[in-house]
Amino acid sequence: MICSKGIVPESDPGRKNRWAFKNTATMKFNIILLLSMMACMASCLKQPGSYPPEPQIYHLSTRPNTINLNDTINAVQVELKFNDGDGDIGTDPQAGIQNIFIRSSKDTSTSQDYTYALNFPYVQDYMRPKNGSLSGFFTLNLTKQFFSITDSLHLALRKDTITWSIYVVDDAGHKSNVVTTDPIYIEF
Predict the structure, then answer these.
(1) C-alpha–C-alpha distance, residues 146 and 168, integer Å
(2) What tens digit of pLDDT does each residue of 20-69 get?
(3) What residues form DSSP beta bridges with 101?
(4) Any idea which fold 56-187 has?
(5) Which helix (H) or strand (E) holds 39?
(6) What is d(CA 93, CA 122) in angstroms, rounded to the nearest whole number?
(7) Whole-angstrom distance, CA of residue 159 vs CA of residue 156
(8) pLDDT > 90: what percent of the chain?
(9) In the β-sheet with 75-84, what is the strand arrangement from edge to edge?
(10) What residue segments make up the domains of the chain, in order of their start?
(11) CA–CA distance, 98 with 34 (Å, rounded to integer)
């Protein structure tokens, strides 16, 4: 082997040490970079059960999407998901507080922002989490009395389409976001 300036023979024991140092430095840099990226990603994740004090609702489904008013047992089920950060919704089974509000797309009145007001289902204490926040699902069963046809055009056509806008209010008076159902086709 010829040894000249700048070339280190393969048998030089110092060569491996310099190479190992470079790999160690690169590995430390990669580990620090990886841990930094993981910390950034973890800080962006929402902690389970950490919801704002205002209720939030999400429309999941509307089934069936057609109702026949001549059918006496037919009903439309609107399935919703809810979150409430302070968990003060559905707390009193005897209160009779109406805190689910639904508005028909056919309702043009300006006196109030809902057509019907309903009671939120009671959530028993043992079902409530310790951290105070509450999330779950509920279903509205809209029977044929929720679907009245009042205008002559739709009476003549014997068909109509309706949507419902829905929101909830918790015991502290916090109003949720408003969700809208899928179109529901009415036949009679």
Answers:
(1) 18
(2) 545 666 767 667 666 666 665 554 544 555 778 899 999 999 999 888 88
(3) 117, 167
(4) Immunoglobulin-like (2.60.40)
(5) helix 13-44
(6) 5
(7) 8
(8) 26
(9) 56-63, 75-84, 134-143
(10) 13-45, 56-187
(11) 51
